[in-house]
């Protein structure tokens, strides 16, 4: 029997390993105000009734397939600015793409998830777009991976939470970050609101908070929060680990 060289065996062992055991998932949240044609407008020029925070829902592929019904129950939009729809850029982009006037679509990347709110379902004057984007790839693909077998799933082992603005970033950190577990039959859920400021160290001079949350990314677990009006961009730097025993309690 021919002996296999040691270096070949080492290579075979390396090929069996996941490409990346530990890494990071960057998710950027941005908000845009537009007129009815999808042309971006300065947020200082929109009516006072629109100058407020808007919710966003992350992960939770099961809820995404149902129009974020649970997400809307956990963080319901204001009646004056109803939720219109969500879409994945490049797959089911619903409107505005052919108006010839819009420029909000120039801000989106293929695979982004976008929530849309408006001032009126029947006679809209403004739209509010909340964009979720992953610089290294499709955020929609990462979320959809939650439906795969356990060896392919990601495990979140905490997150660095950034808020970029000219205002006090603590305005954003004061917004609860909700960890929600959804029943597989869709009839109920359990929500665990967590305050990021509770994780802030008084001696920490960084421009982010390390948020200690652990869970496996499956389709029934969701994170949500509200982007403050004074904040234009926030980032989540999720610390991920592959092929581990999965977490179930969000702590």
Determine the N-to-C terminus distance. Answer: 53 Å
What's the mean pLDDT score? 82
Low-confidence stretches: none
Count of domains: 1
How many runs of DSSP E, i.e. beta strands?
A: 11
Q: What share of the residues does DSSP label as strand, in percent?
A: 35-45%
Number of DSSP helices? 5
Q: Specify the overall morphology.
A: globular
Structural class: mainly beta
Largest sheet at a glance?
7 strands, antiparallel
Structural commentary:
- A 7-stranded antiparallel β-sheet has the order 3-4-5-1-11-6-9. Strands 2-10-7-8 form a 4-stranded antiparallel β-sheet.
- It is globular and about 45 Å long.
- It has 251 residues and is mostly beta strands.
- The protein has helices at 6-16, 61-65, 69-74, 139-144, 170-173, and strands spanning 22-35, 54-59, 83-88, 113-118, 126-133, 154-164, 177-182, 189-194, 208-216, 221-227, 233-242.
- It is built from 5 helices and 11 strands; from the N terminus they run H-E-E-H-H-E-E-E-H-E-H-E-E-E-E-E.
- The chain has one domain.
- A hairpin with a 6-residue loop joins strand 7 (177-182) and strand 8 (189-194).
- Helices cover 13% and strands 35% of the residues.
Topology summary:
Elements: H1 6-16, E1 22-35, E2 54-59, H2 61-65, H3 69-74, E3 83-88, E4 113-118, E5 126-133, H4 139-144, E6 154-164, H5 170-173, E7 177-182, E8 189-194, E9 208-216, E10 221-227, E11 233-242
Search tags:
4-stranded antiparallel β-sheet; mainly beta; globular; 13% helix; 7-stranded antiparallel β-sheet; single chain; 5 helices; 251 residues
